[in-house]
Specification:
alpha/beta; two-stranded parallel sheet; 10-stranded mixed beta sheet; 21% strand
């Protein structure tokens, strides 16, 4: 066949470890034989981020703003152990956090459902979509160590540098400890609220937003207040569609969502969304079965898998051992980006290809061929699941494609 042509490139952000290995294989086996792929490539592997003083991360985010659509491989956020392992100059911040700050977007994560894969929560019949605020909070916090006898204050200055407010955080008279200061911005919270209400209307989903304003009365209370103000612009449209919006505490939201049948949008602050999206993905079957897209207020899109770099499998791969790594979410990152690129460019052939690749991926699992993580979850009458290694699964998808 003649390859499908692209008029505008995707921004391609390469990553780390096992997902980097799969990234290359997905392109070779599932995309390049059919698409004349055009990308602007950025290597966000940890070594290259270290070499560029992390400048490459910001460059890739600015490229996403320029071209409108990006696809990202999973990356390492270094801790002390990674500092030593990779001999890093610095403990660089989360690349996802950097990209989210620059795009000021909202992350929407949804499970990839397949017949035969039974969720751990039996009542979940429909997808639960997580909307995660992608700016601020602990991801851009300032923190440090306080010595015994020191006092830490939260100080506010006006534009001229004059102190206007001072609040004691803690007096460490009884011993040393740690402190952290975090922030968010009204504009970003308001953009988050608009993105969530629009998404709920577009996808015809009722919506829950949850924080802990009973404890964090000012900080979380500000989120609650802005969401309530913003909802007044969407309330009529929600009512016309028979949808509802509920604000509740995060612990109550967990109970409500667990008891639900799914089919709703759950909006969370940055850290809550990070944790709850992994919980929801695992409860539906596997972290490898969760799609993720960052949507900016001005309509820029960055697609990625919701999981990490699969370190354990990577070290097995380095030893020459066989792995059976679930690549579904990474495949769907590519299909999401290709589909959106096609929609924006009016490239119907590219959109159709992306949809067919998604269908082929799901069909492969539903017909009993899958990676090892899905075998214990698969229940389909008359089908005995077959475990495939990482590359064999991609070839099984290619056969159906």
């Amino acid at each position: 066949m003649e390859k499908i042509r692209m008029t505008t490139p995707l921004v391609e952000m390469d990553g780390d470890e096992m997902t980097r290995i799969l990234w290359k294989k997905i392109k070779e086996i599932l995309i390049l034989p059919y698409v004349d792929l055009k990308t602007e490539y950025y290597d966000l592997g940890l070594k290259h981020r270290d070499e560029t003083e992390d400048a490459v991360t910001a460059e890739s985010a600015l490229a996403a703003k320029k071209y409108g659509v990006a696809v990202k491989c999973a990356t390492i956020t270094p801790n002390a152990q990674r500092m030593s392992e990779y001999n890093l100059k610095k403990m660089w911040k989360s690349p996802n956090g950097t990209i989210r700050r620059i795009l000021d977007g909202t992350v929407f994560r949804a499970p990839i459902l397949c017949k035969g894969i039974l969720p751990y929560v039996p009542g979940w019949k429909k997808p639960i979509v997580l909307a995660r605020h992608a700016y601020g909070d602990v991801y851009s916090a300032a923190d440090g160590v306080a010595a015994a006898g020191e006092k830490v204050y939260l100080v506010t200055e006006d534009a001229q540098g004059k102190e206007i407010r001072r609040a004691l955080v803690h007096d460490f008279k009884d011993g040393a400890g740690v402190v952290q200061g975090m922030h968010n911005c009204d504009g970003s919270i308001r953009s988050f609220a608009h993105s969530c209400f629009r998404f709920a209307l577009e996808e015809n989903l009722p919506m829950i937003f949850a924080t802990k304003d009973t404890i964090s009365k000012v900080y979380d209370g500000r989120f609650k207040e802005i969401f309530a103000e913003t909802y007044t612009e969407y309330e009529k449209a929600f009512e016309e569609k028979g949808l509802w919006y509920l604000y509740t505490l995060i612990d109550d939201a967990v109970a409500r969502v667990t008891r639900s049948e799914g089919g709703l949008l759950w909006a969370c602050k940055n850290y809550d969304g990070d944790v709850m999206s992994d919980m929801v993905a695992t409860a539906y079957g596997s972290l490898g079965m969760m799609s993720s897209v960052l949507v900016s207020p001005d309509g820029k899109y960055e697609y990625e898998a919701a999981h990490g770099t699969v370190t354990r499998h990577y070290y097995k791969h380095l030893k020459g051992e066989e792995t059976s790594t679930n690549s579904v979410a990474t495949i769907f990152a590519w299909t999401g980006a290709l589909k959106k690129r096609g929609e924006l460019d009016g490239n119907d052939a590219l959109v159709a290809f992306a949809r067919n690749l998604e269908r082929a991926t799901v069909a492969t699992i539903e017909e009993g061929e899958m990676t090892g993580d899905l075998i214990p979850l698969f229940r389909a009458e008359g089908i005995t699941p077959k475990k495939l290694n990482s590359e064999a699964f991609l070839h099984a998808v290619a056969a159906r494609l």
